[in-house]
Write a structure and sequence with these properties.
By secondary structure, the protein is α/β, with parallel strands linked by helices. It is 34% helix and 32% strand. InterPro entries: KH_dom-like_a/b, OsmC-like_firmicutes, OsmC/Ohr_fam, OsmC/Ohrsf, OsmC_Ohr_Peroxiredoxin.
C-alpha cells in the first residue's frame, strides 16, 4: 500500500467577516466566506476549493484514462459546476457536474465516440476526489467530442 500525506495550513483570526489563508506545498491563497453567502468574498473559499479539487482530479484522471486507451493526441477543457443546497438548517454540496470537451483528430473521433461512456466512468472511478465524496455528492459527467 502506497501512502502520501498532503499537508496544508489554514489560519483565521476574528469572526465570519474576516479573511484567512490556506497554504500548502504550492498553493497560498486568501480564504473567506463567499459574498453571496453573506461573507467577505475575498480570495477563494472551501466550496470553490472542493469543486476545483474535483475538477482538476477528474481532468487528470480522464487524460490518463484516454492515454491508456491509446488516445494520446488530445486536448481536454473541463468546466465544472458545484451546486450547494441549504436544507435542514445547513449547507450541503449536492452535485458536482463536469463538462469535459475533448478535442481529437477527425480520424479518432468515431473510435472515441464508441468508447467514451465507459472511459468517462473509468476516469471517475479512478479519481481520488470522486471516490472521497461519492455517496455524499452526486457526480454528473456530460462530455462532448470536438
Amino acid at each position: 500500500m502506497a501512502k502520501h500525506d498532503f499537508k496544508v495550513q489554514t489560519q483565521w483570526r476574528g469572526g465570519r467577516e474576516e479573511v484567512g489563508t490556506v497554504s500548502g506545498d504550492v498553493i497560498t491563497e486568501q480564504i473567506s466566506i463567499p459574498a453571496p453567502l453573506g461573507g467577505n468574498g475575498t480570495g477563494t473559499n472551501p466550496d470553490e476549493l472542493l469543486v476545483s479539487a474535483a475538477s482538476s482530479c477528474y481532468i487528470i484522471s480522464l487524460a490518463a484514462t484516454l492515454e491508456r486507451a491509446k488516445f494520446t493526441n488530445i486536448q481536454i477543457t473541463n468546466d465544472s459546476i458545484g451546486t450547494a443546497l441549504f436544507e435542514n438548517g445547513k449547507f450541503k454540496m449536492a452535485t458536482i457536474s463536469h463538462y469535459p470537451k475533448i478535442v481529437v483528430t477527425s480520424s479518432e473521433k468515431e473510435k472515441l465516440e464508441n468508447r467514451l461512456p465507459k472511459l468517462l466512468e473509468v476516469a471517475d472511478h479512478n479519481c481520488m476526489i470522486s471516490n472521497a465524496i461519492r455517496n455524499n455528492v452526486e457526480i454528473q459527467i456530460q462530455a462532448t467530442i470536438q
